[in-house]
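Lab notebook: predicted structure, single chain.

Context: the supervisor wants predicted structures on file for every construct in the current expression panel, including those that have not yet been purified. This is the next one on the list. No modifications to the sequence; it matches the entry in the shared construct table.
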Amino acid sequence: IVPRVGRPGMLTPVALLQPVDVGGVTISRATLHNADEVSRKDVRPGDTVRVIRAGDVIPEVEERLPRPGRKRQAPYTVPDACPACGSAVYREGAYFFCPAGLACRPQLVGRIVHFASREALDIDGLGEKTALDLVEKNLVSDIADLYRLSVDQLKTLDGFAERAATALHAAIREARRPRLDRFLYALGIRHVGKRTAGILAARYRTLADMTAADKGDLEKIEEIGPVIAGSVSRFFQDERNRRVLDRLQQAGVRVSPMPSENKNPPLADKTIVFT
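Prediction complete. Output recorded below exactly as produced.
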């Protein structure tokens, strides 16, 4: 049983199996969902298990098959540290997470795609296939590396010639002045969608003030509960994430502060009727 780190940083226990045919497909690994499920089914390394394909698609361990007289190994426990980057994991409900979102390699491809998405920094031409190629060719180890890529490096990507590489390089450079709300959303902080990013940006206005906020301060904001507050403060307190933010700044990224609230909006106290 090994933990697999997904894009949101979730550690999912996966059973590595002796290859077995299930419905005409050879299965060598199957999901165990979460630590509570492993405990409930009492599945341990070395056990014999029954495997099904949930919905005829996803391999899943259905149950343990008792083997009388056979000594069993110790119960599975979730590691204290992320197996990919070594960060201390934390628990949220039935699941365990790695907090080092910006610097944890297994999360990197999904983070890059989200960072470049239209509602985040809107970097045209940086989709999943390109992100995967960048990571596999060791051109990007965290999102800050995107801003250090040269046209020649981009030309080594599959399907990229001079024109496409130049266009992507320009698109990345144009994304060096994001507004705070879009930047917060682009970071992919757990529980922080577009609306929450907007609420946080309106409250703190600058990235420096946002990174200095603690959990208690965050909980005082309307619509920000303890779960969101804990996720945001944990993200900005993580040393790996802070290093990536520093590297983004060194690469020329300057997060624009939110505009000041207009004390005298032009339509204040006016009634407008559409006919």
